[in-house]
Design goal:
The protein has about 475 residues and is an alpha/beta fold. The protein folds into three domains: about 190 residues, FAD/NAD(P)-binding domain (3-Layer(bba) Sandwich); about 120 residues, no CATH class; about 110 residues, no CATH class. About 35% of the residues lie in helices and about 20% in strands. It is built from 15 helices and 19 strands. Strands 1, 2, 10, 11, 12, 13 and 19 form a seven-stranded mixed β-sheet that branches. The longest helix is centred in the last third of the chain and has 21 residues. It is globular. The chain binds flavin-adenine dinucleotide. Flavin-adenine dinucleotide binds next to helix 1, strand 14, helix 14 and helix 15.
């Protein structure tokens, strides 16, 4: 009998397992795939390592929030590479380039130079970023179970805030221009927008060698604490007694008996697992099964020719549309935006691989969801992917000339790929839209991970700490 069984070995599940195993609890993590990591997974082709989800993080300088959290998880020893402080992100909007600088003061000064007539609103905006960024751990001092519930930044929409406070449309687009790392829709709470943007203004980092190192490091430590990780272990059902879950059932029929369950999976996936459970009401199951999801991503992982494209120590965001509409770009307008992310090269000044990302809706790929396994979906899907990739490469080449000529090989994934590898409904990149009430699903069933409120590496790490607090009543010293 385990103290805790965690469903899913994404970042959230692994961090929860780490925290609880370290406290001496008997923990097991159940992962459906042969490989752990979820959105942290990397894959290798022709000797090049590609990231599938995670690309960069913010707030990793000494004393900043993610640095303090990563110290708890012993992740600061990984090969982090700081991005250019004078321009960690470059946003192209309306054909013009805007650099995002690190440091609240530098960021404000740079933006005020671009938009001298908007100083007052920029001061207010940067004040909000600073306030959220510097008080992120206040969530742990709140007493109620739903620690973030009383925060007005959750009930205010980010778009509403920007519409009311930033009258200059160009500035509004530029400040929002580091999409697509955020699910920019009118439902996005201001807290999510501020937390993520603020952490990057603090500092921005990539990891040399791929995000999988985060998952591998956590897994090794979980095992050192006596925890177990089972791969190829898809949870498909559960058993109950006296209003609590008592066991999880794997697809091979194996039964895992446990006192507590933590779900690191999409709510729709959890509802399948608890489908037969009587103490979760039908209305509750229906509600969690029909939550609206954020958009997915088309990703083109590109292996570059040798010495063909200089490494850029920043990200490039391209926008040819209105930023808040681009998550819903129509097939005929595709592509309106792109993120160009450079992987840190093993050595030298030339990039070895880059990734291009752009939002893609489930509706665009749903017709190819014919029950076939990834890699066997037929020529029409392959042609669709090749066409979209070529269009995205053309867009990137317009802003960073030379990219197209530097392409050696490329690999394409769509929301369908994400759905298959992570069981996230509709292949959504960021899970459920809007905040879910942060609470237990039932007496001994807890949520964690990007679907319960905060996404991204910082957000998910916060959810893991909050889940531990619900379970044990404390959080590690940060
Ligand atoms: C394209 C893309 C780019 C991104 N870029 C960034 C970025 O640059 N910076 C950043 O901070 N964040 C980024 N993110 C977001 C970040 O990667 C995620 O928010 C975070 O990794 C999600 O972690 P998670 O643990 O909540 O979920 P997941 O990573 O989705 O993990 C869920 C796990 O559960 C497993 N699972 C599902 N169902 C079952 C089942 N029935 N039984 C057993 N196991 C199951 C899945 O296989 C998976 O391993 C990006 C995401 C995407 C998709």
């Amino acid at each position: 009998m385990y103290d805790v069984a965690v469903i899913g070995a994404g970042l959230g599940g692994l961090e929860c397992a780490y925290l609880l195993a370290k406290k001496g609890m008997k923990v097991i993590v159940l992962e459906q795939n042969p490989v752990i990591g979820g959105c942290l997974q990397t894959f290798k082709r022709s000797g090049v390592t590609f990231d599938t989800g995670f690309h960069y993080i913010g707030g990793l300088d000494e004393g900043q929030p993610l640095n303090r959290i990563f110290k708890v998880f012993n992740l600061m020893t990984l090969p982090w590479q700081k991005l250019d402080t004078e321009g960690f992100d470059e946003v192209f909007y309306g054909g013009k380039s805007y650099l995002f600088k690190n440091g609240y003061g530098n960021f404000l000064a740079q933006m005020t130079e671009y938009f001298p007539n908007d100083r007052a609103c920029l001061e207010k905006y940067v004040g909000l970023m600073k306030d959220v960024g510097e008080n992120i751990f206040d969530a742990f001092s709140r007493k109620q179970e739903d620690m973030l519930a009383d925060d007005s930044l959750f009930s205010t929409g980010a778009l509403d805030y920007l519409t009311q406070n930033v009258k200059n449309e160009v500035l509004k687009n530029v400040l929002s221009g580091t999409s697509p790392k955020l699910p920019l829709t009118e439902k996005l709470p201001l807290y999510h927008f501020a937390q993520i943007n603020s952490s990057f203004i603090q500092s921005a980092y990539r990891i040399k060698g791929g995000g999988m190192q985060i998952a591998d490091s956590l897994a090794a430590q979980i095992k050192q604490f006596g925890g177990e990780i089972l791969t190829k272990a898809k949870v498909v059902a559960s058993e109950e007694k006296d209003g609590a879950l008592t066991a999880l059932i794997l697809s091979n029929g194996e039964k895992i008996e446990t006192k507590n369950v933590i779900s690191n999976v999409h709510p729709l996936e959890l509802m399948k697992i608890v489908d037969k459970v009587s103490f979760i009401r039908a209305a509750q199951k229906r509600r969690y099964s029909s939550l609206e999801n954020s958009f997915g991503m088309l990703t083109v992982n590109i292996a570059l020719k040798k010495n063909a494209l200089k490494y850029l120590n920043r990200n490039v965001y391209i926008h040819e549309g209105e930023v808040w509409q681009e998550g819903f770009q129509k097939a005929e307008d595709f592509p309106k935006c792109a993120l160009i992310s450079y992987a840190v090269p093993q050595s030298g000044e030339y990039a070895e691989n880059i990734d291009l990302l752009t939002p893609m809706l489930w509706q665009d790929v749903e017709r190819f969801d014919n029950g076939s396994k990834p890699g066997h979906r037929g020529t029409e899907y392959e042609e669709f992917k090749q066409k979209k990739a070529a269009q995205l490469i053309d867009l990137a080449d317009k802003y960073v000339p030379g990219i197209k000529n530097a392409v050696d090989k490329f690999y394409v994934s769509t929301p369908l790929t994400y759905r298959d590898y992570t069981s996230t409904a509709e292949g959504s990149a960021y899970g459920v839209l809007k905040k879910m009430p942060f609470q237990k699903l039932a007496s001994n069933v807890y949520w964690t991970g990007q679907n319960i409120g905060l996404h991204g590496i910082l957000g998910v790490s916060m959810t893991a700490l909050l889940t531990q607090r619900l379970l044990t009543g404390d959080v590690p010293e940060l």
